[in-house]
Amino acid sequence: MSRCLPGLILLAMLTACSSVSKVLPDKRIDYKRQRVAESDLEVPPDLTRGTIGDAMPIPGTARGATATYSKYREETTGERAVAVSGSEVLPEVPHVRMLRDGNQRWLEIDQPPQAVWPKLVSFWRRMGVVLVEQNPALGVMKTDWLENRADIPSGMLTDLFRKVLEGLHSAATRDQFRVRLERGDAPGTTYLYLTHRGMQEELSKDVSGDTENTVWVPRPSDPGLEAEMLRRIMLYLGLTEAQSKQLMAQAEERKALQSELLKTRSGVALEVQADRDRAWRLVGIALERAGFEVQDRDRDQGVYFVKYDDPMKEKDQGFFSKLAFWREDKIDSEAEYRIHLSPDGEERTRVTVEDAQGRADHSDTAERILTLVHEHID
User: Mean pLDDT throughout 199-204?
Assistant: First the structure.
């Protein structure tokens, strides 16, 4: 029996691993749930539905009659309440389209932004993801840095240890997603843009070549992860698996975008071979992929208001400035800029950089900003 014991243990481990692979066949995204987001709202016992009568007199009804708010709303507005099952609200199935321009994808939803916003918040909570930024006024939400367990090397012993000791192994990559909602061109529609930012852990070495510690450095955005997350949002909004895959396959891919950095007597500009509406969308996605902090935007004027800390810009590093560690301007070194888009013909748009006061900026920093946009727009 003692001789057979190791073989039985090995067989059990292989069986467990094979069963896991059948349950989780898609290992592209397997984000670790964050504890803050996975706890449901607990309703006190005295506030449950069974102890409170939800029928009450409604002004305008027959004398002595009672009605629920949902019934009253249906009679007055013609809108039916969303069905409730357990603790989850079943979202209405909107008509969703996936649009594509090169490697950039976004969704067009036949609902206004104020109706789409709460469903997105519920989507991230359902996935166990914490939102570190929520700005309904700008239509922007940003997730925390997520650990994708699919990036952990898989093996028989590794999977067993991860099952027993979850924190023993961690991925060397982190992902963050940013969602931006804008009103669509058609009334009552919403454009949903999702961009990915990535970090990876690398070994840091000293001058002698010895390893000191590990540091996190940026890695390129992954359009594949963006497409997969958009597909999962479509599934949450009510589409079936087959419908979501069909939309992704049918997403119209336009010809590759051409952009060029121009250096003229008046300064540096970025020439985009697209009309202003298309360039507005693509420049916005490029700014988010490049990691710019978009403070505000004015689509009518064609202006993005951003903050940017130029790592190449020389800063005051004098002796007394180093001692003044308490100064607030030393903490926030990001400067404000305006990214201005102006039509330059029917199918061309010129992108320039302005300072916070709206004056043209021809500095080296402005050129680096346009270079980053140029690199992320193609």
Answer: 84
